[in-house]
Amino acid sequence: MEKDVTNAHQMALESAIFGRLGQHASIGYLDRAQDFLSNSGRIHEVSQELSYSVTLLKIDLEMRRHDHTRAMEILEELAERVEDDEADIYIRTKVMVVKARIYSGAGIPQKGFSVAVRAANIALDAHILPVLWEAICAICAILHSTGEFEGSLKLLEVILPRVLECEDCDLAGYAYSLLADTHVGIAGSAEEESLQRKEQLLRALFYLDKAFLEFSKIGDRKNLDEMLAKRATVLRLNGDRHIAEGIEARYIRDHNARRRKKNRGITLYDGYRA
Questions:
Q1: In terms of Cα–Cα distance, which of 36, 103, 18, 13 is closest to 63?
Q2: How far is the C-alpha of 159 from the C-alpha of 161, rounded, in Å?
Q3: What distance, in Å, lies between the first and last C-alpha atoms of the chain?
Q4: Deepest of 14, 83, 92, 137, by most Cβ within 10 A of its Cβ?
Q5: Coil, helix or strand at residue 65
Q6: Could you tell me the pTM of the whole model?
Q7: Contact at 8 Å (CB) between 177 and 227?
Q8: Strand partners, 266
Q9: pLDDT per residue over 36-82, tens digit each?
Q10: In sequence order, what are the beta bridge partners of 273?
Q11: CA-to-CA dists, residue 118 to 50, 127, 129, 169, 219, angstroms
């Protein structure tokens, strides 16, 4: 009985640190996320599953800082641990997908193509659907870098209903954002001022709105800002310069407001002080 209570307390402590870490990272308070990472290292006999998850959040933190070299270093260390621990197939495929996303974030997505395809094949065989959809999204990002927008569109339209079934806002936002990129890419091959170009840009705006909604559900400040920036770009391409300027002004205003809150030690969570 006493052991069960201890285990329950340990799980609650782990869950609290993991949840707060994710909150701070997503809303852009990276220094506070780093503090919580330090705290997580003080938990005794941390579960293997949580240890892997915290390491993946460390990688996400470095990617949000645009330090992809450090993110890859942490990932390689995790890959060695996964191999030594003979971890389950879920974490193995997840590590492969994250590797592909690091390459994409670093601006060299083609380097992650083979690992993304391998992860997708393994996830398909093992029927690990969330990782399969994420791997396919990573493949689509790589296709964009080679100008294969039509092929990417077909893949994304097939998997989107399944992605939404996972009820994972981050994954859904990622898929919607990729769909927007796909339509912008297709618009780029159309004639200026043509109806096809305008239709493709309007579809891009539609999916950017969808992505923004998903990221707003989890307060992901980095991706929300990215969606605003993409929306302003698409509006300019569509000839809506004044609306684009309004979005840019809103971004600057919100960014300055967040900096003031951060300097006062106030997060976006009402009543919480670090």
A1: 103
A2: 6
A3: 35
A4: 137
A5: coil
A6: 0.78
A7: yes
A8: 273
A9: 555 555 544 556 777 888 888 889 888 988 899 999 999 999 999 88
A10: 266
A11: 25, 14, 14, 24, 32
